[in-house]
Design a protein that fits this description.
Elements: H1 3-9, H2 12-25, H3 27-37, E1 40-42, E2 47-49, H4 52-60, E3 65-66, H5 71-74, H6 85-97, H7 103-121, E4 124-126, H8 127-144, H9 151-167, H10 179-209, H11 217-227, H12 234-248, H13 250-264, H14 267-276, H15 280-293, E5 300-304, E6 308-310, E7 318-320, E8 325-328, H16 330-333, H17 368-383, E9 389-390, E10 406-408
Parallel strand pairs: 2-8
Antiparallel strand pairs: 1-2, 3-5, 4-10, 5-8, 6-7, 9-10
C-alpha cells in the first residue's frame, strides 16, 4: 500500500503519529509520493507541506506565517518576533557586531581546536559531545566574550533552550524527558545563564567605563548601549549575548554529525570528499550537499495568520486556515525536482541557493556566515584524520538530536 493509502486507513488520532514516524524513518520515498499526490496533508494537529514552492512561500511570507509558537519559549528575544521594529533593529545590530572579517580567524581556530582535541583523545572520541558541542562552545568562549565560563555549563544552557524551542511543541512526540521537565530545565538553564551574563556584563561595563575596552561582541554591545544612539539597553545586551551561545552549539553538533555520518557511510562519497579535503573551497560543497540529504531540521514550523492557498494552480490546491500550525517540510522541498534537478544524485557542484540549510526569509539563521565556515571545517578535519571509523551509529537517546557518537582513529595520526 502507498503511504497515503495507509494514512487514510487509520483513525484521525493515529494519522499524525504515523506520518511523523515516516518523516524520520523513511523520508525520501514518503516525500516523493506526497509531493506528487498530496503536497498539503491536512491533519487535525497541523498542515504538512512538502513542495519547494510552498515551503518557500511559508518561510518568506512572515505576515501570513508567524513564529508565534516560539514566543512562549524565547520571550522577548527578537527572533521570536516577526515584522517588528525590535526584530529589525536588533538583527541589524547583531549582524553588524559579528564581523565577517573575523570569519577566517574563526575557521582557523576551529581547525586547530578540532586537531587538538583529536590529539588529546588518543584514538577514540565521543564526536557529538567533545567536538560537535565542544568546539562551538570553545569558539563562543574565545570570540564572543565567554572566556571564563564553564564549557559544560554553556553546553547545558544551550541544550535545554534549544530542546524547548525546537523540539517541545504540542505536535512533538513524547521523549525520554517529559514536556514539563524540558520546560523546567529550560527555565533553570535560562536563569543560570542570565545570572552568569548579568555578572559578566557588569564587569565588562565597569571595564568599559574606565577605558579597559574589549573588542569581542559583548563589549561592542555594551558600548553601543551607552551611546543612546538607538533603543538598545543592557537588558537587550543580555538577551542577544545569550542568543549567540544558544544559536551556536546544538545546531552545529547536529549538522556536523549528520554531514559526517552521511559522508562516511558511502565509500565512494567518502573517497571523493577525502580527495577534496586538502582544499576547503573544494571540500565545503560536499558538506552542504550532505546536509541536503540529512538536514539538522527536516521542517520549520509556523502559525498561519490568514487563510492562504498552497499548491495553487494545481489539482492539489488546499487552503491553510488562519490559526493553523503549518510544517514547511524543507527536507522534502530540497528534493523537489522543480527546484533541484535530479535530486537523488549527490552532487557537490549543485547550486544550493534555494536550499533551506540556514532557513529563508527574515528568520534566516543569524550566524549563517559563521556556521558556513565552522560546520564544514569540523567535518573536514575529521576526514583528514587517518584511520577514522565510526564504532556505531549516533546515539540519539530517544531524542531528536545526537547525544553521543563514538569514533576511533589512528592515535599516532592527526589532522592536517
Amino acid at each position: 500500500m502507498s503511504y497515503l493509502a495507509r494514512l487514510d486507513a487509520v483513525p484521525e488520532t493515529e494519522k499524525w503519529p504515523l506520518l511523523r514516524g515516516w518523516l524520520y524513518s523513511e523520508p525520501l520515498p514518503l516525500f516523493e509520493e506526497l509531493r506528487r499526490d498530496r503536497p498539503v496533508v491536512q491533519l487535525p494537529e497541523l498542515d504538512f507541506c512538502t513542495r519547494h514552492a510552498d515551503c518557500t512561500l511559508i518561510l518568506r511570507r512572515h505576515n501570513s506565517f508567524s513564529v508565534a509558537l516560539y514566543e512562549p519559549k524565547q520571550g522577548d528575544y527578537f527572533m521570536a518576533q516577526d515584522d517588528t521594529a525590535r526584530h529589525w533593529r536588533e538583527k541589524s545590530i547583531m549582524r553588524s557586531i559579528l564581523d565577517f572579517e573575523d570569519i577566517p580567524a574563526m575557521r582557523a581556530f576551529v581547525g586547530e581546536e578540532v586537531a587538538r582535541r583529536l590529539e588529546d583523545a588518543n584514538g577514540r572520541i565521543d564526536f557529538a559531545h567533545e567536538i560537535g558541542r565542544g568546539v562551538p562552545v570553545a569558539l563562543v568562549q574565545h570570540f564572543f566574550g565567554f572566556r571564563n565560563a564553564d564549557p559544560e555549563k554553556l553546553a547545558e544552557w544551550s541544550y535545554w533552550n534549544q530542546q524547548d524551542a525546537f523540539h517541545n511543541q504540542a505536535f512533538d512526540a513524547p521523549g525520554p524527558v517529559s514536556s514539563e521537565e524540558i520546560i523546567a530545565n529550560r527555565k533553570k538553564a535560562g536563569f543560570a545563564l542570565a545570572f552568569y551574563l548579568g555578572r559578566l556584563v557588569l564587569r565588562r561595563t565597569i571595564a568599559a567605563k574606565v577605558g579597559l575596552e574589549g573588542d569581542d561582541p559583548m563589549s561592542r554591545l555594551i558600548r553601543l548601549s551607552f551611546s543612546d544612539a538607538l533603543k538598545f539597553n543592557l537588558k537587550q545586551v543580555l538577551f542577544n549575548t545569550g542568543g549567540l551561545l544558544i544559536g551556536a552549539v546544538e545546531t552545529t553538533s547536529h549538522a556536523t554529525v549528520n554531514a559526517l555520518e552521511f559522508l562516511l557511510t558511502d565509500p565512494e562519497r567518502r573517497r571523493a570528499a577525502e580527495a577534496a579535503a586538502s582544499n576547503p573551497a573544494a571540500f565545503d560543497p560536499f558538506v552542504f550537499e550532505a546536509l541536503r540529504f540529512r538536514p539538522a531540521f527536516p521542517y520549520f514550523f509556523r502559525t498561519a495568520t490568514r487563510d492562504t492557498v498552497l499548491a495553487a494552480d494545481t489539482p492539489h490546491s488546499a487552503t491553510v486556515r488562519a490559526g493553523r500550525t503549518v510544517l514547511a517540510v524543507t527536507h522534502s522541498a530540497m528534493f523537489d525536482p522543480a527546484a533541484f534537478p535530479d535530486p537523488m544524485r549527490f552532487d557537490p557542484s549543485r547550486d544550493l541557493s534555494d536550499a533551506f540549510t540556514f532557513g529563508q526569509g527574515i528568520h534566516e539563521c543569524l550566524g549563517r556566515a559563521i556556521a558556513a565556515a565552522m560546520v564544514p571545517e569540523i567535518v573536514r578535519q575529521l576526514l583528514l584524520t587517518p584511520g577514522l571509523e565510526a564504532e556505531s551509529a549516533p546515539d540519539y537517546g530517544g531524542t531528536k538530536v545526537p547525544q553521543h557518537w563514538p569514533l576511533r582513529f589512528d592515535a599516532a595520526g592527526g589532522s592536517a
